[in-house]
Amino acid sequence: MALSKHAIDTVKATAPAVAPHVQEITSLFYNKMLGRHPELFQFFNKSSQKTQRQPRALADAVLAYAGNIENLDVLGPAVERMAMKHCALQVMPEHYGIVHDNLMEAIGDTLGEAVTPDVAAGWSEAVNALAGILINHEAGLYEAASQRTGGWMGWRKFTIAERNEHNEEVSTFSLKPSDGYDGGFDFTPGMYLTLDCELKDSEGDIVAPRHYTITSAPGDKVLKITVKHLKDGKASSALHSFTDGMEVKCSPPFGDFLNASAGKEAVLLSAGIGVTPMYTLAKHGGLNVKYAMHVDHESGSNPFAAHYVDTPGFHQITTTETGRPDMEALVKTVAEGAGGLADKHVYVCGPTGFMMEAVRSLQTAGAEKILFENFGPRTNEQRD
Question: What is the pTM of this model?
């Protein structure tokens, strides 16, 4: 759906007035929508609402859309990431109407009389146009996921066939389809599996499904995920209370972390459980790894230490021995070990604060192609 000149002109003219209030708008939007449709908590981690991370991420997306309203092609990578997450959570076309109505109401309530019928019409068209872009792209992703070997559409029941404990906190779970399928599974290394353990929180709201990097190899007859047991993590606690035959619902593998980098010279930088996609990329991704650095609390915390150490240029820092590393100094060490960063694909994964510091330091050090996996809402502070 091509935007009309009226919609483009309206968004361009009013974006400066919207910008100072955009997070107020998005916060109100989520309050309205989730208050009226608590079933939509299946798409949103409640903690991201409480910390305002989700409203900030949407605010950044709104401003990016408005700022590029005449050149939407530049939003392609952002649309791809958004569509991947939407498909993993099984967002359907009918959900976009709910988003539109509540967002337009939040804009009107926040900006008041400044939202004339003419302005409202222009923004409404723009919101619907973005929805159309996502719906069309997601339809293609859903179809592709269903056509892969072992692929499917929607939620599919899997049985936890085996649990392998790496240490007190981390276990790998092997998942087999409950429908009796005994073939292999095709996916791109670095993709994640989304699990719905069908949980509710203390307030009776749905606990959103969680994304976990697939750690088995493409073609294997089971899908494996490696999960850290978080103290207050409802999904990880449910998994770690595993009993024989426990079932979970899974959507198909999605994600674009590898991003067509196979064969390219790569650098891997991770912390904590962020080692999981790095291990997968190093073992199955076809990357030409020049250097890999992992930061962990203790030497035994890395669940893949026995395998990941075979990666060329692998190094590990344990904070109990050396303290928390200075990121600029760490990146300098990585850059020297890799023979420079400008011509490398640099992969980053770990806690949000670690990734934000790493991306800033990597950019300063000359890295031009930085890819990072972030399973929560992505804000402008987390650019690649």
Answer: 0.89
Task: Please identify every residue annotated as catalytic.
Answer: 96, 138
End-to-end C-alpha distance for the chain, whole angstroms = 28
d(CA 375, CA 377): 7
In a domain, 13, yes or no: yes
- CATH number, domain of 301, equals 3.40.50.80
Task: Report the distance separating Cα 125 and Cα 123, nearest Å.
Answer: 5
Please report whether residue 382 resides in a domain.
Answer: no
**Residue keyed to tokens 């790569």:** 266
Taking only the tens of pLDDT, the chain with its 384 residues reads: 689 999 999 999 999 999 999 999 999 999 999 999 988 988 887 777 777 888 898 999 999 999 999 988 888 888 998 999 999 999 999 999 999 999 999 999 999 999 999 999 999 999 999 999 999 999 999 999 999 999 999 999 999 999 999 888 999 999 999 999 999 999 999 999 999 988 767 677 778 889 999 999 999 999 999 999 988 788 888 888 877 778 999 999 999 887 666 567 899 999 999 999 999 988 898 888 999 999 998 878 888 877 766 776 788 888 888 888 899 999 999 999 999 999 999 999 999 889 999 999 999 999 999 998 765 544 444 444
Assess whether 250 and 143 both reside in one domain: no
Is the same domain home to 210 and 235?
Answer: yes
- Three-state DSSP at 206 gives strand
Q: Write out the residue range of the structural domain in which residue 356 sits.
A: 265-372
Verify that 277 and 184 share a domain, yes or no. no
